[in-house]
């Protein structure tokens, strides 16, 4: 049976803890940093994230995970329907991860948006 030590998994997840400093809501799944963060492409709004607060932990049902906390004060910068999220490292202009929202939501420029917490998980080796 294969085995991967928690430390090896944590080092991969650590990028979400120490480098991911912005979360954008998007009208479709972005494939580049520019799409994820630039209004007029697919970005509809964003929230600045605190780094160093999302340490890797035990995943469920197995493996390791990092949890992005919920918030209710994201800034909507473009009107549209948000269907995806994107985590970015704005210091190094990197798109780190994307995913579908649990449910699409219509947003209007100038308003705020909320997201519930979500988890990025690396499953255990099988």
Largest sheet: 6 strands, antiparallel
What distance separates the N and C termini?
A: 7 Å
Question: How many strand units?
Answer: 9
Number of domains: 1
Spans of at least 5 consecutive residues with low confidence: none
Shape: elongated
Secondary-structure element series: HEHEEEEEEEE
Number of helices: 2
Give the fraction of residues assigned to helices.
10-25%
What does this structure look like?
The protein has one domain (6-122). The chain is mainly beta and 126 residues long. It starts with 5 loop residues before the first helix and ends with a strand. The model has no long low-confidence stretch (mean pLDDT 94). It has helices at residues 6-18, 33-37, and strands at residues 22-26, 43-48, 57-58, 64-68, 71-76, 80-89, 94-107, 112-115, 118-122. It is elongated and about 45 Å long. The protein contains two helices and nine strands; from the N terminus they run H-E-H-E-E-E-E-E-E-E-E. The protein has a six-stranded antiparallel beta sheet with strand order 7-6-1-2-5-8. Strands 3-4-9 form a three-stranded antiparallel beta sheet, covered by helices on one side. Helices cover 14% and strands 45% of the residues.
Short structural description:
The chain is mainly beta and 126 residues long. Helices cover 14% and strands 45% of the residues.
What are the SSEs and their pairings?
Elements: H1 6-18, E1 22-26, H2 33-37, E2 43-48, E3 57-58, E4 64-68, E5 71-76, E6 80-89, E7 94-107, E8 112-115, E9 118-122
Antiparallel strand pairs: 1-2, 1-6, 2-5, 3-4, 4-9, 5-8, 6-7
